[in-house]
Amino acid sequence: ATCVFQARTSLNRSIKRNPNAAPYDAKAAPDEDQEEVQEETRQKFLGRLSQSVKDLLSSVKTTNVNAHTLGMVVNTREGKRKVAPMIPRNTPLPAEIIRTCGTVLPNQSRVTVQVVEGESENADECIPVGTCQVTNLPRGLPKGSPVQIRFIYDHSGVLHVEVLHLATGVWAQT
Fold first, then answer.
1. Which residues of 82-118 are buried (b: 16+ CB within 10 A; e: fewer)?
2. This prediction's pTM
3. Residue range 26-45, pLDDT digits in tens
């Protein structure tokens, strides 16, 4: 299994792959140190303000969202490259979505998921983020053999992608 992500994106994230790692669980890994620093900074700031301003600011809740749609490239029957949106822009983080697709050809030996960022349906108008590829699929698989794609965008703004061939259990992740 191969996963390659490029740094030429507004995500500006360092994405690494551990081939022995279990699937990522965004809910189990909040960035506690970051949350503590944010709370300390908030308390210092509030200490300098009048009570009415403190009351007003205390009622404000923030939500982290992704700035751009994240999707995967799919090939249409007409041979065009389109974007299938996975996590739309302004989705609260953490976010997770799972989609099931099918292989395009009988006897397909690999599945490559191209991840892009942008609002266009045209894949060529979006920013390539990277790829995740499942290789060494066994011979004899029919066209349409199910493949599960999972996008997880965690609290820290790091995107994790998992691709699983459901019939064989062969998978890859970022």
1. ebebbbeeebebbbbeeeebebeeeebeebebbbbbb
2. 0.69
3. 555 555 677 788 888 877 77
